[in-house]
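Students often ask why inverse folding is considered easier than folding. One informal answer: many sequences map to the same fold, so there is more than one right answer. In these notes we will look at a single instance of the problem. The structure comes first.
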């Protein structure tokens, strides 16, 4: 088998695992991003949450990190927003939890 794990396509990209790392392939099986992530979620509205160097961040479809991987946990995108849990070392100005929208803005929970 070419991949250790493979998941359903979302926005013409699928999460796959190879040699212990996650990456994305396109709908013809070609690598779309490097296999550089220790965790990866499906794409929604052109963005996906990935785990890199112990933290979660957001990439675009080219694999470019759009939001630094500094979050403790990441949920799934719904309606253009994703729930992220802030790592404790980010300081008291950040809430413990919040939502990020696709414009990279932190939306505080009520």
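Output (designed amino acids):
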């Amino acid at each position: 088998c070419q991949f250790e794990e493979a998941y359903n396509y979302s926005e013409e990209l699928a999460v796959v695992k190879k040699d212990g790392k996650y990456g994305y392939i396109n709908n013809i099986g070609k690598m779309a991003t490097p296999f550089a992530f220790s965790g990866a979620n499906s794409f929604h509205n052109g963005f996906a949450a990935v785990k890199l160097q112990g933290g979660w961040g957001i990439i675009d479809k080219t694999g470019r990190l759009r939001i630094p991987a500094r979050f403790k946990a990441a949920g799934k995108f719904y309606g253009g927003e994703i729930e992220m849990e802030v790592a404790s070392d980010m300081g008291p100005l950040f809430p413990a939890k919040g939502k990020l929208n696709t414009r990279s803005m932190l939306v505080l929970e009520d």
